[in-house]
C-alpha cells in the first residue's frame, strides 16, 4: 500500500488533533512498565526517576482511611513521571512514523528507477534495431515529403543531385507542345541501362512509352511514329508515308515543338527529317524539302499558365513565341494573347525590368505582398519569371517584395536558374 510522506504541517496537525488521553494507572505501574522496556534502559531521565524514593507515598489503605490530599512534592513527582512517559511514547511514535515513511519513499524511488532503467534498456535496444533502417530511409522519406508538400513545379539543381533529367514535350489539346521535365533516380537508370550512360535517344525509347499521356490530359502522341536513329551528333527521324504530323500547319508546328522540347539540351545539335528512302521529307504545308531543325538555338520564351483537360496547370511558352531581349519577354508576360494560355501576373501588379551584369531585376511598383495572393498563384508568378529569365540564360532578382523568402526561395538575392519546367516522376 502506498503512503505519501508527512510534511511538518501535516505532522503538527495530527498531533494537535490527537484525542486527549487519560491514564488511571498508578505511578508504580507506569514506572515498572518503563523499566521493563529494553529500549529505555540507558535513558538518563529514567535512571534519575528510579533513584527517587517512592516509600513516602501513603498506601492505598491509608488513603482510604485518612483521605488526605497529596502534598506538593508528591504531585510534582507524579507530574515528572507522567511527563517522562508521555515524552518517550511520543518519541517512539514519531520515530516509527518517520522510519516507515522514509522506507516507503526509498522503496517508491527504487521501483521507478528500476522500471525506468529497464524501460530505457528496452527502448535503447529497440532504437538500435531500427536505427539502420531509419538512416537508410530518412533521405527518401524527407525527399518524398517535400516533393508532395512543395508548391514548386519546376526542377532545380538540388532535385537532380542523385537523379537524371529526362525531357519530353507532350501534345496538348490545342496542337501545341507543353514541356515536361522528368526526374529519374540514378538507381533506376542503372537498373535499366547498366553502368553505361544512356544516350538521350535510348532514354526516350525506354521511358516515353511508360508515360500515360491521356491520364495527364494530353493527346496520346509518344513514341513517335517511324524510326529515330543517331548519326554522330545528329538525330534522324524517318517518317512513314502516312503519318499524323503532316495534316495541317498546326500539326506540323506541334510536331516540331515536341521534338524541340524532347531533344533540346541534349548531345544532338539538330534533327533531320527523312523519307523512308533517305531523302529529305517535304511537309505538304511548306512545299519544299525540310531543312534540318536546330536544337541549339536559344529558346527565348516567356512563360504562361496552361490548363489541361483534367484541370491541371503547367508553365509553358505561349505558342513558342520568341523575344529579342529578356526585358521584352518579362514585360510582355502581363499581356493576354489568346484563350489557351493565362498570364501569371495579376491585373493589379505592375513592375519595371532592368538588366544588370549579375542578371535581370524585376522591381514591383508597389510592394508586392505574396500573401495577398493564393499561395500556388504566388509561386507560379515567381517560377514563371524565373523560367523566362533562364531561357535567356540569366538569373532573376525580385525587388520590392514584402516577404524575404517564399517556398524555399531566398528573395533577398538572385534566384537560381531552373533546370526545367513542370517536374514529373515516372510511375
Supply database-style keywords:
alpha+beta, three-stranded mixed beta sheet, transmembrane, transmembrane helix, membrane, RNA polymerase subunit sigma
Describe the protein in words:
The structure is a single chain. By secondary structure, this protein is of the alpha+beta class. About 8% of the residues have low confidence. The strands form 5 sheets. A 4-stranded mixed sheet has the order 3-4-5-6, covered by helices on one side. A 3-stranded mixed sheet has the order 1-2-15. β3 and β4 form a beta hairpin. It has 10 helices and 15 strands. α2 packs across α5. The longest helix is centred in the first third of the chain and has 78 residues. It comes from Lysinibacillus fusiformis. This is RNA polymerase subunit sigma.
Q: What would you say about this model in short?
A:
By secondary structure, the protein is α+β, with helices and mostly antiparallel strands. Helices cover 39% and strands 17% of the residues. It folds into 2 domains: 8-128, no CATH class; 150-223 and 298-424, no CATH class.
What would you call the shape?
elongated
Largest sheet, in brief, is: 4 strands, mixed
Helix content: 25-40%
Order of helices and strands: HHHHHEEHHEEHEEEEHEEEHEEEE
Measured by DSSP, the beta-strand proportion falls in 15-25%
By DSSP, the count of extended strands is 15
Mean pLDDT: 81
How is the topology of this model organized?
Elements: H1 8-16, H2 27-36, H3 44-51, H4 60-66, H5 72-149, E1 163-171, E2 177-185, H6 186-193, H7 200-207, E3 227-231, E4 234-238, H8 249-263, E5 270-274, E6 293-294, E7 303-307, E8 313-317, H9 326-331, E9 341-342, E10 351-355, E11 360-368, H10 375-390, E12 396-401, E13 405-406, E14 409-410, E15 423-424
Helix pairs in contact: 2-5
Transmembrane segments: 80-98
Organism: Lysinibacillus fusiformis
Protein name: RNA polymerase subunit sigma
